[in-house]
Structures are given as C-alpha cells and as structure tokens.
Design a protein that fits this description.
- Chain C: This is Energy-coupling factor transport system ATP-binding protein.
- Chain C: GO terms for molecular function: ATP binding; ATP hydrolysis activity; ATPase-coupled transmembrane transporter activity; cobalt ion transmembrane transporter activity.
- Chain C: Keywords: ATP-binding, Cell membrane, Membrane, Nucleotide-binding, Translocase, Transport.
- The structure holds 3 protein chains of 3 kinds.
- Chain A is built from 11 helices and 2 strands.
- Chain A folds into 2 domains: 138 residues, no CATH class; 73 residues, no CATH class.
- Chain A is mainly alpha-helical.
- Chain C has a single domain, classed as P-loop containing nucleotide triphosphate hydrolases (Rossmann fold), CATH 3.40.50.
- Chain C is 38% helix and 21% strand.
- The chains are: A mainly alpha, B alpha/beta, C alpha/beta.
- The interface between B and C is medium-sized, with 33 and 36 residues.
Chain lengths: 264, 290, 282
C-alpha cells in the first residue's frame, strides 16, 4: 500500500504548490460539482483538459501519479464494466455469452469512469501539492464564519495540527514497542489469525499508555507557554492570496463558461 | 554464547531514494561469557547493530552468528523464536513495554511466549525479583502504579525471566538519577558474574565502559572505529576526540596532569584513591613508581 | 515586602502535596531567586525539585505558604501574567513540541500572548538565532535530534522574553552531545540577555556554572551555597544518591592525605594550578 499517493505530499516549488490552499480547495470543490453536469463529449474534454494541464503544472512526474493511482484503476475498470453490462440503451453492439452490450452502455461506461478518474485525480492533486498543515489552515480560515454560531473552529484546527505533528512520533513509538515485544517472543507475522489478534494487545496497551502520557505532558507544556484557548490569540501562519490565485480563479471561470457552452 | 559478525552491512529501505547505509562491513567477535561495551554517537549504528543480535534485523550483506544460530540475507530462519529466547534485549526506557494487569503476569509473559512450563516459570520468580531488588509485594500490583525506577526494574525482570544466555542492554540507565544509575549498573554486573551471562552494553558513558567492560567496540558512522580492552582503547585521547568522543575523566585528568607536571602517571585502571597516591609520589619524588 | 524588591522569585514556607495520603512533596520551603541570577536545584528523583518548577509558573498551586513572582502573589488571577514572566523547558523533547515545524513551534507562545504577526516574525528569527537553530526554521520535529528539539524549546521560551527561564531536567533525556549543546546555549544566553536561570538537574557537572546551588532532599532544602561550597560536602551528596564531579573527589582524597588545599576546585585546571603552586613550595 506504500505506493498509494492519495493523501501524500510531494514537496516542490511548482506554481500549483505555491497556490493558496484555499484557492485549491475552492476550485476543486466547484470542479467536483460541475463534473456531474458534464453531458457531451466536448464538455468532458474541457474538464479533462483542465485536469491534465493542472497535473502537468505540478511538475510531479506523470509516471509517479499514474503508478500512485494504480489501486484506484481497479475501481475505475470495475465501474466501467458494471455500466457496460447494466445499461440497456442504444443499439446492440455485440454479445458476450448471454450479455448484450449496447452502444449507450459503452458511452455511459466511458463517461462515468472518466468522471470518477478526474475526481480522484483532482483531489489527489490537492494533497500532492499541499502540506496537511496548509490544508488545516485553509479549513480553519474557510470555516471562520462558523465561529459566530459557536462552532469550535480554532480548537478543531489545533487538534488537527497537533495530530499531524504527532503522527510520525507515534509511528516511531509503535515500531519501538513492537520490536521490544517481538524480543519477548511475540509473533506479529505468523500463526493463526486468532493468535495474531491477541498479539496486538501487548502493542496497543503500551501505545495508549504512552499516548496518554504524551497528551498530559503536552497539555502542561502548552499551559506553561500561556495557552488558554483561541480567544485573544494572534496567528503566525498567514494565508494570503497572490496574483497567481486570481489568475487561476479567472481562468477557472473561463473554463466553466466554456464548459457551460459546450454542454449538450 | 559467542557472537561473530562477518562483514555485516545493513541498508534500510534499499533501492529507494530513502536508502540508508546504517552498518558498513562490520566484523568482530564477542567470546562467550564476556562483558562488551559498544560506544558511539547517536546515529553511529549502535542500535542497528544490536537489532541483529536477536534477529529483529537481518544483515543485507555478510553474516551474523550467535551461538549455533546464523543470520544471513535472504534466508528465513525458522528458529528465530529460539534465538530470541536465548538473547534478551533490554531496550532504552524498557518500562514502555509493560502492559499486563499485574507485575506477575508481565514477568510471565516472555517465558510463556517461548513455551516454558508455568511451574518452571513460577519457580524463577523469587530469584529474579531478588536480582532486580524488588519486594514480593509488587507481584500483585499493577505495573502502572509503581514508581519510574520500579517500573524499569519490572521490565528488566521480564527479560531476565526468559533466562537468556546473552543480555543486551541499550542505555539501561537513561533518565535515572546518579544513585539509581549506580545500583542498576552494579546489578547488571552481578548478574553477569553470577550467571556467566554474555553481556553487551550500549552506552554513552566512558566511565561505565571502563569500570565494567572487558572489551569495547567504538562505532562511528556505521563502521567499527576501534576495538580492544578498555585500558588500551579508552586512553587514546586524540583518536577518540577525532570522532567527537571524550575519554574517561580519569584519563583526561592524567593527561592534564602530565602537561602541568611534565611527569606521566600511566593509566592502569586505578581508582581515585590509587590516583591520589600516585600523584603524591610524583609531587614528592618527581616520579610515579616507588 | 522590602525583600521583594530585590528578589524576582520568593517562596515563603511553601508546602505542597500531590495526594492527601502521600508525604509532602515540598515541606515549608523558603527560597529566593534574584534578577539575573543562575540558580541550580539538584536532588535525586522524587526529592521535590520538579515540584518547585511547576509551582513557579502556576502549573501547581501550594496548599500552604505563598509564592511571589516579580512582586505578584501567585493566584488564579495573576497566573497568566506570571507565565509571561516565567518560561519553562521540560524534560521530554517530544512532548513539548507543539508546532509542525520549528518556526511554528517558536510562534506558539507568541500567538498565545497575542503578539502581532509582524513582531512575531522578528522575535522568532532572533530567538532561533540565539540558540543556533535559524537554519532549521522550516524543519519538522521528527527530523531533529533531542538536543536540537530542546534548543527549539528554549527559543520558544526566549521569544516571549521572560525574566526567568526554568530548565526542568531539560538535559535528562539527551546524549552527551545534546547535553553539551544545551549547556553552551544556556551560557550564551546568560551572556547576551538579562535573564535569570533556574536549572533543575541531577547532573552535578551542570551546576558548576551556577551562581548558587540548592540541594533538595525529601521536599526540603538540605544544602544551599555556591557550587564550591556544595561540592565540599561530598559525603552528604553521596549519601542522598547524588554524584560529585571527579575533580571534587580527587581533591577530597588529596586533602585526606594531608595536602593543604585552600580552595575547593571547580575543574581540573583549578586543582592542578593549586597543586603546582604547592609543589613549587615543597
């Protein structure tokens, strides 16, 4: 599963990397909605072209992206086949055993799979070019208005950023504990499933104990450093829209207009 | 059990951009029943090295021999569990591995995994508790209710319960105060003597290496930088300082003394009392020997 | 109250327990720390030394006695002002690193105190420079060594410009290299800034740089004085499970053998110089 790229960040200096995360989220949000309105060859073509150009602009090797989406290919092919055999529109093209394949099904299958593919491609472009912490900042900023209805936006964002900060630490910890228990004769890899599930207990208990201890100490350190909730706090991380972002917005609106015109 | 490394190399995540060469062409021999100290900076390969001793890692090149067990690249060792039973590893901050409801259960956990009969295990408990200087009352308590120092002793007892032939200690005194450190190091030394356990100590403390070990391995950037008896290796100030390591305080003092007084007091593993006598002799008669 | 004007921290017969059924963690402890003073507190694990630190910036409140920080009496009302004046570095380098990068972590304290962003950027740069970590500003914590993380923690405290920095066993989990890094950093800060330091440790090498040492045992002050004065009582230190520096041990042996050493040496050089003087006169 190591080569699955969804959710992975690839450091870079490309134009797409430097875009404001809010811009990327907004554009992708609308892209995802709009894609469901595509209904002609040309309208699909425009959206696909937009996605491919975006992917090229990230300067991430195409091979890396394609290989990374490998596990998703299966789903896409499955979607295609499902539509191929279920949809009964248009003329019958050919027959496999007792299944009739219609021309409409072929088109439908292609369209839905393409939709699915573009969806995943665009969303992975976000995570490929944006650090998790930048996404968190963007979410905090975009949810800002909800503070008025007492939604704990700041706390939520802090929680997310602390989780991100501690993921590598806890991964290291997991490895250390599993090695210590393996040295005491625990076998995580072989044996019947029942035994392997039991083997997780000596790993999980120490991990939880340590996570709680860390949380306690972290809370104390945060308090010692003057943390008392979101009120009266200033922010170091700042999101600022640049001309690059406006350029993307304008071109995206242009793409949308073109898309609307191209719809059947 | 004797331990031999033959041209051992270890690469983490080979054939990826993240490949990291942690051990490079490492060869050495540790005789059975000896006490060996491994010294080196963080990142010098010490921790990779000790993981080869009980098969947590397999060399990517070369061969590791522990008693009759052999670890070689690409070969699955069916007797891994046997090897782990014979080689007890006390990792850094071993108290982090405690998990059972009671101390007794945690002590029994290791040997049960290795298939030792429950009655045999129960017989071992009093002896092991005595060795780690814990009272029998702790047996029914939760390990998490004990003090930090006691938790560490329970964790160490849990390894000793496996009745290993080789005991590997990875900075076992980290985080303890000086008193606790002394007690624990003496405890390991006694175990080593009484049970004739082959002991391997990973440490930053030149003093401990000098005091307890009969052989030292100095690691630097994944390679064996120096090896030999502590009295030979740990006095080579220039060579050790070249890789950012200090000499023991005694050696440092003797070298400063020689600079000031122009007379050399040879280092022969003397203690502080003997050193004071040596110094008096030099100050009175200008030379060290009577 | 006159005394308060000179001392930055004052403990008046402070007692504290964690649990009713446990013995006092601190018992009627009185102490002061002056402005710009470097005080070291030593003691074995459980001697109450870390409790002192946590009382000083209101992470704990005493059951008896009073604590004054810069003339303010510690209470629920003053605690936030006090935390601005007293910064703290803890033992575990990982469990006090809040930010996802070095500069984010240094910013955390500044954000809490509502420092405007423009000033924040300046202060982050200055304090990272002061601990020699400016080149690492974009680094993530898991790519740093323990010593480097602790230096970032010190930078985070420095940025808020406190009057007192407490290092609560900040070197206990570090390797020798990390320890040296931290001690060098502390000495540099002492030179460059007007700030008091309270160093809590059980490593007696680290106290040689202090102006004053307080030895704690069972929640009480056992010895107080300059490092030299404290090292002279090596037998007491040994008994309560502490170790004394090598040079103090040698000096004690020599004295026992009739060498008339006048001063308690703090390092090898001092001892050898005095011996050389005595030797020339022999």
């Amino acid at each position: 599963m190591n080569n699955l790229i969804i959710g992975q960040y690839v450091p870079g200096e490309s134009m797409v990397h430097q875009l404001d995360p809010r811009t990327k989220i907004t554009v992708i949000f609308f892209y995802v909605i709009v894609i469901f309105f595509a209904n002609s060859f040309f309208s699909y073509f425009i959206l696909a072209a937009f996605a491919f150009i975006s992917a090229m602009l990230t300067r991430i090797p195409a091979g890396y992206i394609i290989r990374g989406l490998k596990p998703v290919w299966l789903l896409i092919v499955f979607t295609f086949l499902l539509h191929l055999f279920v949809t009964k529109e248009g003329d019958v093209l050919f027959r496999i055993f007792s299944f009739y394949v219609y021309s409409g099904a072929l088109i439908q299958g292609f369209a839905i799979s393409l939709r699915f593919f573009l969806l995943i491609l665009m969303t992975s472009l976000l995570t490929l070019t944006t650090t998790p912490i930048a996404i968190t900042d963007a979410i905090e900023d975009m949810l800002g208005p909800l503070k008025k209805v007492r939604f704990p936006v700041h706390e939520l964002a802090l929680m997310m950023s602390i989780s991100l900060r501690f993921i590598p630490t806890l991964m290291q910890e997991t490895e250390k504990i599993s090695k210590a228990q393996a040295s005491r004769g625990v076998d995580f890899r072989t044996g019947p499933i029942k035994d392997r599930i039991k083997a997780i207990v000596p790993l999980l208990v120490p991990l939880f104990v340590s996570a709680f201890k860390r949380a306690e100490e972290l809370a104390m350190a945060m308090e010692a450093r003057g943390y008392k909730g979101g009120e009266g706090r200033t922010k170091f991380r700042e999101l600022q829209l640049s001309s690059r972002d406006y350029a993307l917005f304008i071109s995206f609106v242009f793409v949308l207009l073109l898309f609307w015109w191209a719809r059947a | 059990m004797e331990i031999t490394f033959e041209h051992v190399s270890h690469i983490y995540q080979p054939n990826t951009p993240f490949a990291f060469h942690a051990l490079k062409d490492l060869s050495f021999h540790i005789p059975s029943g000896s006490y060996t100290a491994i010294i080196g900076h963080t990142g010098s390969g010490k921790s990779t090295l000790i993981q080869h001793l009980n098969g947590l890692l397999i060399p990517t090149e070369g061969r590791v021999k522990v008693g009759d067990f052999q670890l070689e690249p690409g070969k699955k060792n069916k007797h891994m569990k046997d090897l782990r039973k014979h080689v007890g590893v006390v990792f850094q901050y071993p108290e982090h591995q405690l998990f059972e409801e009671t101390v007794k259960k945690d002590l029994m956990f290791g040997p049960l995994n290795f298939g030792t009969a429950e009655t045999t295990i129960e017989k071992r408990i009093p002896e092991i508790l005595e060795a780690v200087q814990l009272p029998e009352e702790v047996l029914d308590r939760s390990p998490f209710d004990l003090s930090g120092g006691q938790m560490r002793r329970v964790a160490i007892a849990g390894i000793l319960m496996m009745d290993p032939n080789v005991l590997v200690l990875d900075e076992p005194t980290a985080g303890l105060d000086p008193g606790g450190r002394r007690e624990m190091m003496d405890m390991f030394y006694n175990l080593h003597k009484e049970k004739e356990m082959t002991t391997i100590l990973v440490t930053h403390s030149m003093e401990d290496a000098m005091k307890y070990a009969d052989y030292v391995l100095i690691m630097n950037e994944g390679r064996l930088y120096m090896e030999g008896q502590p009295e030979e290796v740990l006095i080579q100030k220039k060579k050790l300082e070249a890789v950012g390591l200090d000499v023991p305080e005694m050696v440092e003092f003797l070298s400063m003394f020689e600079e000031k007084f122009g007379t050399k007091i040879p280092f022969h593993g003397q203690n502080i009392k003997e050193l004071a006598s040596d110094m008096l002799r030099v100050m009175k008669w200008g030379k060290c020997d009577e | 109250m006159r005394e308060l004007e000179q001392s930055f921290i004052q403990f008046d017969e402070v007692s504290f327990w964690y649990n009713h059924d446990e013995p006092w963690a601190l018992k009627e402890l009185s102490l002061t720390i002056k402005k710009n003073e470097f005080v070291a507190v030593i003691g074995h694990n459980g001697s109450g030394k870390s409790t002192i630190a946590k009382l000083m910036n209101g992470l704990l409140f005493p059951q008896k006695g009073e604590i004054f920080v810069d003339g303010l009496r510690l209470s629920e009302e003053t605690v936030w002002d006090i935390r601005k004046k007293v910064g703290m570095v803890f033992q575990n380098p990982d469990n006090q690193f809040v930010g996802t990068t070095v500069e984010d972590d240094v910013a955390f304290g500044l954000e809490n105190h509502g420092i405007p962003r423009k000033e924040m950027i300046e202060r982050i740069e200055q304090s990272l420079k002061a601990v020699g970590m400016l080149d690492y500003r974009k680094h993530e914590p898991h790519r740093l060594s323990g010593g480097q993380k602790q230096r970032v923690a010190i930078a985070g405290v420095l940025a808020v410009a406190p009057d007192l920095i407490i290092l609560d066993e900040a070197t206990a989990m570090l390797d020798p290299k990390g320890r040296t890094e931290i001690m060098k950093t502390v000495q540099r800060i002492r030179k460059e800034k007007k700030v008091s330091i309270l160093m809590i440790t059980h490593d007696l090498h680290e106290v040689t740089f202090a102006d004053r040492v307080i030895v704690m045992n069972r929640g009480q002050k056992l010895i107080e004085g300059t490092p030299k004065e404290v090292f002279q009582q090596h037998e007491t230190l040994w008994e309560i499970g502490l170790d004394i520096p090598f040079v103090a041990k040698i000096a004690a042996e020599l004295k026992q053998r009739g060498i008339p050493l006048n001063k308690q040496p703090l390092n090898n050089k001092e001892l050898l110089e005095e011996l050389w003087r005595l030797h020339s006169n022999m």
